[in-house]
Amino acid sequence: MAFSRDQHEKVYVQHRILEQAEQVWQWIQEGAYLYVCGDATRMAKDVHEALVEVAEQQGKMSRDDAEEFINNLRKAKRYQRDVY
Questions:
Q1: Taking the CB of residue 69, how many other CB atoms lie within 10 A of it?
Q2: How far is CA 8 from CA 4, 5, 11, 41, 60, in A?
Q3: CA atoms of 37 and 69, how far apart (whole Å)
Q4: Which letter, b or e, does each residue of 29-59 get, where b requires 16 or more Cβ atoms within 10 Å of its Cβ?
Q5: CA torsion through residues 77, 45, 37, 19, sign
Q6: This model's pTM is above 0.85
Q7: Using CA atoms, how far apart are residues 20 and 12, in angstroms rounded to an integer?
Q8: Residue closest to 17 by CA, chosen among 59, 42, 46
Q9: Which of 3, 36, 52, 76 is 20 to 30 A removed from 46 (C-alpha atoms)?
């Protein structure tokens, strides 16, 4: 869980994704579906960036390959966003 308003130090979803990168990568490799809902201006972009970083680090991919990997999840409907 991530709480950005309930404590002095703000913790966001992208922070938790990066902290748990190995687990997130394992879930993706096992077929997990990712759903991102909320603020399109900041949160969705930051979460997307965190997912790309996970693919880079855990998947040992170049930046371009990681971007393509995450975009392929989207095309396969395994990464869906409802952002506004």
A1: 18
A2: 9, 8, 9, 23, 35
A3: 20
A4: eeeeebebeeeeeebbebbbebbbbbbbebe
A5: positive
A6: yes
A7: 13
A8: 46
A9: 76
pLDDT over threshold 90, residue 3: no
Looking at this protein, which amino acid is placed at residue 81? Answer: R
| pLDDT per position as a tens digit, 23-33 | 999 999 999 99
**Looking at this protein, which amino acid is placed at residue 21?**
A
Interatomic CA distance for residues 57 and 69, integer angstroms = 13
User: Which two structure tokens, joined as six digits, stand for 24?
Assistant: 């997130």
